[in-house]
Design brief:
Strand content: 15-25%
Largest sheet: 4 strands, antiparallel
Shape: globular
Number of strands: 8
Distance between the termini: 15 Å
Number of helices: 6
Order of helices and strands: EHEEHEHEHEEHEH
Length: 181
């Protein structure tokens, strides 16, 4: 039986001069943790691997610790199983509205937020026609570009006490393809 597949999303690496991580180093680091079939996508901290079944948050903690110990960087990581990435794609509520994959943002959450905080600070109110909530994910259609849209990730980090990292739709679907290989 094949090992389960996972995607790891590193937050904020290779943006500007800080937190530089070569993808070859990331592949070596993940292989050193015992993961197999390791691959990376782009230079912005997207990787896939096979490994023993474990909770994604446990895997994220292992990757974060290895990056800290081996590369000397504090980098937040979010891990999703192949099934969870496929569910993000299947559950896209903005598919009929979003006409460009580079302008549809998927904001991944480190954990399920507290329902009370969600009710008190609803990010959908930032752009009611363009933001939808999913399971540990927020979809945001940014027709004028991501930088011209409300900063959903920062909003929910501040109000929900979760870590976020965003990927455009093109990247999410490419990760799904890599996970399926």
């Amino acid at each position: 039986m094949p090992l389960p597949r996972f995607a790891v999303l590193l937050r904020g690496i290779n943006v500007g001069a800080n937190k530089r991580v070569a993808m070859a180093d990331l592949r070596r680091l993940l292989s050193g943790l015992g993961f197999t079939d390791v691959g990376t996508l782009l230079q912005s901290g997207n990787a896939v691997f096979s490994g023993r079944r474990a909770k994604p948050e446990v895997l994220a903690g292992r990757v974060q610790a290895a990056i800290r110990d081996e590369l000397g960087l504090q980098v937040a990581c979010i891990v999703r199983s192949q099934e969870e990435i496929e569910a993000v794609i299947a559950g896209n509520p903005l598919g009929k509205v979003a006409t460009s994959g580079s302008k549809l943002l998927v904001v991944f959450l480190s954990e399920s937020p507290d329902p009370t905080l969600m009710a008190e600070h609803d990010p959908v109110e930032l752009a009611p026609d363009r933001i939808r909530l999913g399971d540990r994910v927020i979809y945001q259609w940014c027709p004028d570009g991501i930088l011209a849209s409300p900063p959903v990730g920062g909003f929910v980090e501040k109000h929900w006490s979760v870590t976020t990292t965003g990927r455009n739709w093109n990247t999410v679907t490419k990760l799904a393809t890599l996970l399926g290989e």
